[in-house]
Specification:
It contains twelve helices and 14 strands. With 389 residues, the protein is of the alpha+beta class. Strands 7, 8, 9, 10, 11, 12, 13 and 14 form an eight-stranded mixed beta sheet that branches. Strand 1 and strand 2 form a beta hairpin. Helix 1 packs parallel to helix 6, helix 6 crosses helix 7 and helix 9 runs antiparallel to helix 10. It is elongated and about 85 Å long.
Length: 389
Amino acid sequence: MIRATTLADTIEWLNDSCPGSATVDQVLSELCGRLIDHGVPLSYGGIYVRTLHPEIMGRRFVWRPDMPFETTSVGYDLFDDPEYRDSPIAWVFKTGQPLRRRLCDPDCPMDFTFLDRFRAAGATDLMISPLRYSSGEVHVAAWMTRRPGGFLEDAIETLRAVERPITRMTEIRTLKRVAINLLDTYVGGQAGGRILSGHIRRGDIEAIRAVIWLSDMRGFTARADRMPAADLVELLNRYFDCQVPTIREAGGEVLKFMGDGLLAIFPVGAQEEGAVCGAVLAAARRIEAAVAGADWGGHEAPGGVKFGVALHIGEVMYGNVGSTNRLDFTCIGPAVNLAARIEALSGEIGRTILASRAFAAHAPEGALTPLGAFSLKGVAAPQTVYGVD
Protein backbone atom coordinates (compact mmCIF):
# COMPACT_ATOMS: atom_id res chain seq x y z
CA MET A 1 0.00 0.00 0.00
CA ILE A 2 1.37 3.42 -0.97
CA ARG A 3 1.53 5.74 2.04
CA ALA A 4 1.53 9.53 2.14
CA THR A 5 5.01 11.02 2.51
CA THR A 6 3.92 13.99 4.62
CA LEU A 7 1.39 14.73 7.32
CA ALA A 8 -0.14 17.33 4.98
CA ASP A 9 -0.90 14.53 2.51
CA THR A 10 -2.79 12.62 5.19
CA ILE A 11 -4.75 15.68 6.26
CA GLU A 12 -5.66 16.36 2.61
CA TRP A 13 -6.71 12.70 2.22
CA LEU A 14 -9.00 13.00 5.24
CA ASN A 15 -10.42 16.32 4.05
CA ASP A 16 -11.11 14.70 0.67
CA SER A 17 -13.25 12.04 2.44
CA CYS A 18 -10.60 9.32 2.14
CA PRO A 19 -10.66 8.38 -1.56
CA GLY A 20 -9.94 4.69 -2.06
CA SER A 21 -11.35 3.71 1.35
CA ALA A 22 -15.04 2.96 1.06
CA THR A 23 -15.75 1.55 4.53
CA VAL A 24 -14.92 2.69 8.05
CA ASP A 25 -12.59 -0.26 8.66
CA GLN A 26 -10.66 0.63 5.49
CA VAL A 27 -10.49 4.29 6.53
CA LEU A 28 -9.25 3.62 10.07
CA SER A 29 -6.81 0.92 8.95
CA GLU A 30 -5.35 3.22 6.30
CA LEU A 31 -5.21 6.13 8.73
CA CYS A 32 -3.41 4.12 11.42
CA GLY A 33 -0.91 2.92 8.83
CA ARG A 34 -0.26 6.49 7.73
CA LEU A 35 0.14 7.67 11.34
CA ILE A 36 2.71 4.94 11.99
CA ASP A 37 4.57 6.09 8.87
CA HIS A 38 4.53 9.60 10.35
CA GLY A 39 6.25 8.34 13.50
CA VAL A 40 3.27 7.67 15.77
CA PRO A 41 3.89 4.24 17.40
CA LEU A 42 0.25 3.13 17.59
CA SER A 43 -0.84 -0.11 19.21
CA TYR A 44 -4.54 0.82 19.17
CA GLY A 45 -6.77 3.16 17.21
CA GLY A 46 -10.47 3.47 17.95
CA ILE A 47 -13.38 5.60 16.80
CA TYR A 48 -16.59 5.63 18.83
CA VAL A 49 -19.70 7.19 17.29
CA ARG A 50 -23.29 7.46 18.45
CA THR A 51 -26.13 7.06 16.00
CA LEU A 52 -29.89 7.40 15.66
CA HIS A 53 -31.36 3.91 15.76
CA PRO A 54 -34.18 2.45 17.87
CA GLU A 55 -31.99 -0.42 19.12
CA ILE A 56 -28.37 0.63 18.55
CA MET A 57 -26.89 3.42 20.66
CA GLY A 58 -23.62 3.57 18.78
CA ARG A 59 -20.80 1.77 17.01
CA ARG A 60 -17.18 1.11 17.90
CA PHE A 61 -14.43 0.70 15.29
CA VAL A 62 -11.11 -0.65 16.58
CA TRP A 63 -7.77 -1.16 14.82
CA ARG A 64 -4.88 -3.14 16.32
CA PRO A 65 -1.75 -4.19 14.45
CA ASP A 66 -1.71 -7.81 13.29
CA MET A 67 -5.27 -8.39 14.51
CA PRO A 68 -8.61 -8.50 12.66
CA PHE A 69 -10.43 -5.18 12.52
CA GLU A 70 -13.22 -5.01 15.09
CA THR A 71 -16.62 -3.41 14.51
CA THR A 72 -19.13 -3.55 17.36
CA SER A 73 -22.67 -2.21 17.66
CA VAL A 74 -23.81 -1.46 21.20
CA GLY A 75 -27.33 -1.09 22.57
CA TYR A 76 -28.78 1.45 24.97
CA ASP A 77 -28.29 -0.96 27.86
CA LEU A 78 -24.61 0.04 27.77
CA PHE A 79 -25.63 3.13 29.75
CA ASP A 80 -26.61 0.80 32.61
CA ASP A 81 -23.17 -0.85 32.72
CA PRO A 82 -21.24 0.56 35.75
CA GLU A 83 -17.89 -0.16 34.07
CA TYR A 84 -18.83 1.82 30.99
CA ARG A 85 -20.26 4.72 33.02
CA ASP A 86 -16.91 5.01 34.85
CA SER A 87 -14.75 4.54 31.75
CA PRO A 88 -12.53 7.20 30.14
CA ILE A 89 -14.53 6.92 26.90
CA ALA A 90 -17.79 7.74 28.74
CA TRP A 91 -16.08 10.67 30.48
CA VAL A 92 -14.98 12.22 27.17
CA PHE A 93 -18.45 11.67 25.68
CA LYS A 94 -20.00 13.41 28.69
CA THR A 95 -17.60 16.32 29.14
CA GLY A 96 -16.37 16.90 25.60
CA GLN A 97 -12.85 17.31 27.02
CA PRO A 98 -9.68 15.48 25.92
CA LEU A 99 -8.10 12.94 28.25
CA ARG A 100 -4.58 11.56 28.51
CA ARG A 101 -3.20 8.95 30.88
CA ARG A 102 0.54 8.07 30.74
CA LEU A 103 0.14 4.52 32.02
CA CYS A 104 3.91 4.00 32.07
CA ASP A 105 4.18 6.63 34.79
CA PRO A 106 4.04 5.03 38.27
CA ASP A 107 2.18 8.12 39.48
CA CYS A 108 -0.45 7.96 36.71
CA PRO A 109 -3.92 8.26 38.31
CA MET A 110 -5.88 5.06 37.73
CA ASP A 111 -9.17 6.90 38.14
CA PHE A 112 -11.23 5.15 35.45
CA THR A 113 -12.24 1.57 34.81
CA PHE A 114 -10.29 -0.26 32.08
CA LEU A 115 -7.06 1.66 32.75
CA ASP A 116 -5.60 -1.23 34.74
CA ARG A 117 -6.55 -3.59 31.91
CA PHE A 118 -4.86 -1.36 29.34
CA ARG A 119 -1.71 -1.24 31.46
CA ALA A 120 -1.77 -5.01 32.00
CA ALA A 121 -2.04 -5.47 28.22
CA GLY A 122 1.16 -3.48 27.75
CA ALA A 123 -0.21 -0.02 26.95
CA THR A 124 2.08 2.78 28.11
CA ASP A 125 0.06 5.81 27.03
CA LEU A 126 -3.60 6.57 26.29
CA MET A 127 -4.92 9.64 24.49
CA ILE A 128 -8.65 10.20 23.94
CA SER A 129 -9.93 13.11 21.86
CA PRO A 130 -13.47 14.46 21.49
CA LEU A 131 -14.70 14.69 17.90
CA ARG A 132 -17.11 17.61 18.02
CA TYR A 133 -19.57 17.61 15.11
CA SER A 134 -21.06 20.78 13.63
CA SER A 135 -24.31 19.94 15.45
CA GLY A 136 -22.48 20.07 18.79
CA GLU A 137 -22.60 16.29 19.27
CA VAL A 138 -19.47 14.74 20.74
CA HIS A 139 -17.97 11.53 19.40
CA VAL A 140 -14.62 10.03 20.35
CA ALA A 141 -11.25 8.92 18.96
CA ALA A 142 -8.87 6.91 21.17
CA TRP A 143 -5.18 6.09 20.64
CA MET A 144 -2.75 3.91 22.60
CA THR A 145 0.90 2.95 22.34
CA ARG A 146 3.18 0.32 23.86
CA ARG A 147 6.30 2.39 23.30
CA PRO A 148 8.43 2.63 26.46
CA GLY A 149 7.86 6.09 27.86
CA GLY A 150 4.59 6.56 25.95
CA PHE A 151 3.90 9.00 23.13
CA LEU A 152 6.59 11.57 22.34
CA GLU A 153 5.47 15.17 21.98
CA ASP A 154 5.85 14.98 18.18
CA ALA A 155 3.40 12.04 18.10
CA ILE A 156 0.93 13.95 20.27
CA GLU A 157 1.11 16.92 17.92
CA THR A 158 0.50 14.63 14.93
CA LEU A 159 -2.58 13.12 16.56
CA ARG A 160 -3.87 16.59 17.38
CA ALA A 161 -3.28 17.71 13.80
CA VAL A 162 -5.55 15.02 12.38
CA GLU A 163 -8.33 15.54 14.96
CA ARG A 164 -10.32 18.12 13.00
CA PRO A 165 -10.16 16.37 9.60
CA ILE A 166 -11.08 13.06 11.29
CA THR A 167 -14.09 14.82 12.82
CA ARG A 168 -15.31 16.19 9.49
CA MET A 169 -14.75 12.86 7.72
CA THR A 170 -16.56 10.81 10.37
CA GLU A 171 -19.39 13.37 10.53
CA ILE A 172 -20.09 12.99 6.80
CA ARG A 173 -20.05 9.21 7.01
CA THR A 174 -22.10 9.18 10.22
CA LEU A 175 -24.79 11.39 8.68
CA LYS A 176 -25.11 8.97 5.78
CA ARG A 177 -25.36 6.04 8.19
CA VAL A 178 -28.03 7.89 10.22
CA ALA A 179 -30.01 8.56 7.03
CA ILE A 180 -29.85 4.87 6.11
CA ASN A 181 -30.85 3.82 9.64
CA LEU A 182 -33.81 6.20 9.78
CA LEU A 183 -35.08 5.28 6.33
CA ASP A 184 -34.77 1.58 7.12
CA THR A 185 -36.63 2.14 10.41
CA TYR A 186 -39.46 4.29 9.08
CA VAL A 187 -39.98 3.20 5.46
CA GLY A 188 -38.05 -0.09 5.16
CA GLY A 189 -34.73 -1.05 3.65
CA GLN A 190 -35.78 -1.49 0.03
CA ALA A 191 -37.90 1.66 -0.05
CA GLY A 192 -35.17 3.55 1.81
CA GLY A 193 -32.59 2.45 -0.74
CA ARG A 194 -34.79 3.71 -3.56
CA ILE A 195 -35.29 7.06 -1.83
CA LEU A 196 -31.53 7.51 -1.29
CA SER A 197 -30.88 6.62 -4.93
CA GLY A 198 -33.12 9.49 -6.05
CA HIS A 199 -36.66 8.10 -6.32
CA ILE A 200 -38.18 11.08 -4.52
CA ARG A 201 -40.59 12.68 -6.99
CA ARG A 202 -44.34 12.37 -6.65
CA GLY A 203 -45.62 9.84 -9.15
CA ASP A 204 -42.22 8.10 -9.35
CA ILE A 205 -43.82 4.65 -9.43
CA GLU A 206 -43.00 1.32 -11.02
CA ALA A 207 -44.98 -1.86 -11.50
CA ILE A 208 -43.55 -4.84 -9.64
CA ARG A 209 -44.82 -8.34 -8.96
CA ALA A 210 -45.05 -9.16 -5.27
CA VAL A 211 -46.74 -11.20 -2.61
CA ILE A 212 -48.97 -8.88 -0.57
CA TRP A 213 -49.38 -9.32 3.18
CA LEU A 214 -52.22 -7.50 4.96
CA SER A 215 -52.97 -8.23 8.59
CA ASP A 216 -54.79 -6.70 11.53
CA MET A 217 -55.75 -7.48 15.10
CA ARG A 218 -59.27 -8.65 15.87
CA GLY A 219 -61.29 -6.45 18.20
CA PHE A 220 -58.75 -3.61 18.20
CA THR A 221 -61.37 -0.85 18.13
CA ALA A 222 -63.03 -2.18 21.28
CA ARG A 223 -59.64 -2.45 23.00
CA ALA A 224 -58.79 1.13 22.01
CA ASP A 225 -62.03 2.35 23.63
CA ARG A 226 -61.42 0.69 26.99
CA MET A 227 -57.62 0.49 27.43
CA PRO A 228 -55.34 3.23 28.78
CA ALA A 229 -53.25 4.71 25.98
CA ALA A 230 -49.93 3.47 27.38
CA ASP A 231 -51.26 -0.08 27.68
CA LEU A 232 -52.64 0.05 24.15
CA VAL A 233 -49.27 1.13 22.75
CA GLU A 234 -47.51 -1.63 24.70
CA LEU A 235 -49.96 -4.20 23.34
CA LEU A 236 -49.42 -3.00 19.77
CA ASN A 237 -45.65 -3.08 20.13
CA ARG A 238 -45.70 -6.66 21.41
CA TYR A 239 -48.13 -7.63 18.66
CA PHE A 240 -45.94 -6.16 15.91
CA ASP A 241 -42.87 -7.78 17.48
CA CYS A 242 -44.54 -11.11 16.75
CA GLN A 243 -44.76 -10.24 13.06
CA VAL A 244 -42.10 -7.87 11.78
CA PRO A 245 -38.90 -9.87 12.46
CA THR A 246 -40.38 -12.97 10.82
CA ILE A 247 -41.67 -10.99 7.83
CA ARG A 248 -38.23 -9.48 7.30
CA GLU A 249 -36.48 -12.83 7.69
CA ALA A 250 -38.73 -14.17 4.91
CA GLY A 251 -37.64 -11.34 2.59
CA GLY A 252 -40.57 -9.01 3.21
CA GLU A 253 -40.63 -5.24 3.32
CA VAL A 254 -42.99 -3.70 5.90
CA LEU A 255 -44.39 -0.62 4.14
CA LYS A 256 -46.70 0.77 6.78
CA PHE A 257 -48.51 0.33 10.08
CA MET A 258 -52.14 1.49 10.04
CA GLY A 259 -53.27 1.41 13.66
CA ASP A 260 -53.31 -2.33 14.25
CA GLY A 261 -52.95 -3.05 10.53
CA LEU A 262 -49.75 -4.00 8.75
CA LEU A 263 -48.98 -3.88 5.02
CA ALA A 264 -45.95 -5.73 3.69
CA ILE A 265 -44.77 -6.91 0.29
CA PHE A 266 -42.41 -9.65 -0.84
CA PRO A 267 -41.03 -8.80 -4.30
CA VAL A 268 -41.11 -11.79 -6.66
CA GLY A 269 -38.88 -12.56 -9.63
CA ALA A 270 -40.08 -14.34 -12.74
CA GLN A 271 -39.13 -17.81 -11.53
CA GLU A 272 -39.56 -17.35 -7.79
CA GLU A 273 -43.32 -17.56 -7.22
CA GLY A 274 -43.29 -21.00 -5.64
CA ALA A 275 -40.32 -20.35 -3.35
CA VAL A 276 -41.57 -16.94 -2.22
CA CYS A 277 -45.16 -18.07 -1.61
CA GLY A 278 -43.89 -21.08 0.32
CA ALA A 279 -41.67 -18.87 2.48
CA VAL A 280 -44.47 -16.37 3.13
CA LEU A 281 -46.94 -19.08 4.10
CA ALA A 282 -44.38 -20.62 6.48
CA ALA A 283 -43.81 -17.17 7.97
CA ALA A 284 -47.56 -16.74 8.49
CA ARG A 285 -47.71 -20.07 10.33
CA ARG A 286 -44.80 -19.07 12.58
CA ILE A 287 -46.41 -15.73 13.33
CA GLU A 288 -49.72 -17.42 14.13
CA ALA A 289 -47.91 -19.57 16.70
CA ALA A 290 -45.98 -16.55 18.06
CA VAL A 291 -49.16 -14.53 18.61
CA ALA A 292 -50.88 -17.49 20.25
CA GLY A 293 -47.97 -18.02 22.64
CA ALA A 294 -46.95 -14.43 23.34
CA ASP A 295 -46.78 -12.78 26.74
CA TRP A 296 -49.09 -9.77 26.47
CA GLY A 297 -48.32 -8.37 29.89
CA GLY A 298 -51.89 -8.82 31.07
CA HIS A 299 -53.28 -6.52 28.36
CA GLU A 300 -55.04 -9.11 26.24
CA ALA A 301 -58.79 -9.64 26.31
CA PRO A 302 -60.36 -12.91 27.47
CA GLY A 303 -59.50 -15.51 24.87
CA GLY A 304 -56.19 -13.83 24.01
CA VAL A 305 -55.06 -11.72 21.06
CA LYS A 306 -56.22 -12.89 17.67
CA PHE A 307 -55.47 -11.57 14.21
CA GLY A 308 -56.14 -12.20 10.55
CA VAL A 309 -53.80 -12.11 7.57
CA ALA A 310 -54.53 -12.13 3.84
CA LEU A 311 -51.97 -13.38 1.31
CA HIS A 312 -52.19 -12.53 -2.37
CA ILE A 313 -49.79 -12.32 -5.29
CA GLY A 314 -50.02 -9.91 -8.19
CA GLU A 315 -48.79 -6.71 -9.75
CA VAL A 316 -48.63 -3.60 -7.59
CA MET A 317 -47.67 -0.01 -8.28
CA TYR A 318 -44.74 0.69 -5.96
CA GLY A 319 -43.44 4.18 -5.27
CA ASN A 320 -44.28 7.74 -4.20
CA VAL A 321 -47.86 8.83 -3.61
CA GLY A 322 -49.08 11.95 -1.82
CA SER A 323 -49.01 15.71 -1.86
CA THR A 324 -46.29 17.90 -3.31
CA ASN A 325 -43.99 17.94 -0.30
CA ARG A 326 -45.46 15.14 1.84
CA LEU A 327 -45.08 11.75 0.19
CA ASP A 328 -45.59 8.15 1.20
CA PHE A 329 -43.59 5.29 -0.28
CA THR A 330 -46.20 2.58 -0.64
CA CYS A 331 -47.91 0.17 -3.00
CA ILE A 332 -51.35 0.51 -4.58
CA GLY A 333 -53.48 -1.24 -7.16
CA PRO A 334 -56.27 -3.78 -7.59
CA ALA A 335 -54.13 -6.54 -6.10
CA VAL A 336 -53.78 -4.57 -2.86
CA ASN A 337 -57.52 -3.90 -2.81
CA LEU A 338 -58.28 -7.60 -3.21
CA ALA A 339 -55.92 -8.48 -0.37
CA ALA A 340 -57.69 -5.93 1.85
CA ARG A 341 -61.09 -7.48 1.10
CA ILE A 342 -59.81 -10.98 1.87
CA GLU A 343 -58.27 -9.75 5.10
CA ALA A 344 -61.63 -8.29 6.16
CA LEU A 345 -63.21 -11.69 5.43
CA SER A 346 -60.87 -13.45 7.88
CA GLY A 347 -62.68 -11.98 10.87
CA GLU A 348 -66.12 -12.77 9.44
CA ILE A 349 -65.38 -16.47 9.00
CA GLY A 350 -63.05 -16.86 12.00
CA ARG A 351 -59.90 -17.81 10.11
CA THR A 352 -56.42 -16.53 10.85
CA ILE A 353 -54.69 -17.16 7.50
CA LEU A 354 -56.54 -16.65 4.23
CA ALA A 355 -55.10 -16.71 0.72
CA SER A 356 -56.30 -15.87 -2.76
CA ARG A 357 -56.56 -18.35 -5.62
CA ALA A 358 -53.49 -16.74 -7.23
CA PHE A 359 -51.41 -17.24 -4.08
CA ALA A 360 -52.67 -20.79 -3.56
CA ALA A 361 -51.63 -21.69 -7.12
CA HIS A 362 -47.99 -21.12 -6.15
CA ALA A 363 -48.10 -22.42 -2.58
CA PRO A 364 -46.77 -25.88 -1.69
CA GLU A 365 -49.14 -28.64 -2.76
CA GLY A 366 -51.70 -29.47 -0.09
CA ALA A 367 -50.73 -26.53 2.13
CA LEU A 368 -53.98 -24.63 1.49
CA THR A 369 -57.58 -25.81 1.30
CA PRO A 370 -60.37 -24.06 -0.67
CA LEU A 371 -63.01 -22.63 1.66
CA GLY A 372 -65.50 -21.64 -1.02
CA ALA A 373 -66.34 -18.65 -3.22
CA PHE A 374 -67.14 -15.39 -1.43
CA SER A 375 -68.60 -12.11 -2.60
CA LEU A 376 -66.17 -9.40 -1.59
CA LYS A 377 -67.06 -5.72 -1.38
CA GLY A 378 -65.88 -3.85 -4.46
CA VAL A 379 -64.88 -7.02 -6.32
CA ALA A 380 -67.05 -7.87 -9.31
CA ALA A 381 -66.96 -11.67 -9.24
CA PRO A 382 -67.05 -14.04 -6.25
CA GLN A 383 -63.52 -15.07 -5.23
CA THR A 384 -62.41 -18.51 -4.13
CA VAL A 385 -60.56 -18.13 -0.84
CA TYR A 386 -58.17 -20.65 0.68
CA GLY A 387 -57.30 -21.42 4.29
CA VAL A 388 -54.86 -23.46 6.35
CA ASP A 389 -56.11 -26.59 8.04
